[in-house]
Amino acid sequence: xxxxxxxxxxxxxxxxxxxxxxxxxxxxxxxxxxxxxxxxxxxxxxxxxxxxxxxxxxxxxxxxxxxxxxxxxxxxxxxxxxxxxxxxxxxxxxxxxxxxxxxxxxxxxxxxxxxxxxxxxxxxx
Amino acid sequence: xxxxxxxxxxxxxxxxxxxxxxxxxxxxxxxxxxxxxxxxxxxxxxxxxxxxxxxxxxxxxxxxxxxxxxxxxxxxxxxxxxxxxxxxxxxxxxxxxxxxxxxxxxxxxxxxxxxxxxxxxxxxxxxxxxxxxxxxxxxxxxxxxxxxxx
Lengths: 125, 150
Fold this sequence. Notes:
By secondary structure, chain A is mainly beta. Chain A is 6% helix and 34% strand.
């Protein structure tokens, strides 16, 4: 379990040079104290091609209801919906680190794996 | 350190943003929920006064009125506090420097409505919530008319 996000090391920088990492700047403080507003993170867009997210990983996801809004949250639960088709239907529950954020961050329900854009691997600043 | 300098340089190239705003996930806030509770408390305050000194047959009704008034006044306070602490951000405070005062006064009025049988306090609370309604929708850039149920 990794709650703290490591600072970017040379390996991360090399992966970024090879276009294996995307940079995102964080706005807002719902991920405090892990990520302060203005933090820049390195995201692995391929992290979930071969495996599904695990609890406590920090991810960037497309907001399920607000088109064009990308959010950064921590995975608190992962489950598979097996009803219906034979295709895997993985859903994740995302939450803020900042407990003062109140109940709102728990209100948007599960997010489909397809909405998860990648895993936050490290922090540049 | 060399790596620190490099990471700072790379960080400057970040152009995409990801939102960690507390209201990003659901974004559903509305001062109407506080207004409904405050209006219910106002209504119960009036009913208690109309009932007058309760004789023994009215004790149950009287008790219910008091109980509902206190519940609704407390709910109004909770709804206001959530709006205040979860929705409003420092940038809103720059625009409305008296925001904290307005919420503090409104919360105090909730307490007054809860504790006493005070029509003036209940009316003042409704006015305070109307004021907050106007500020809230202005920050959303929307013109939403204030209304009451009764």
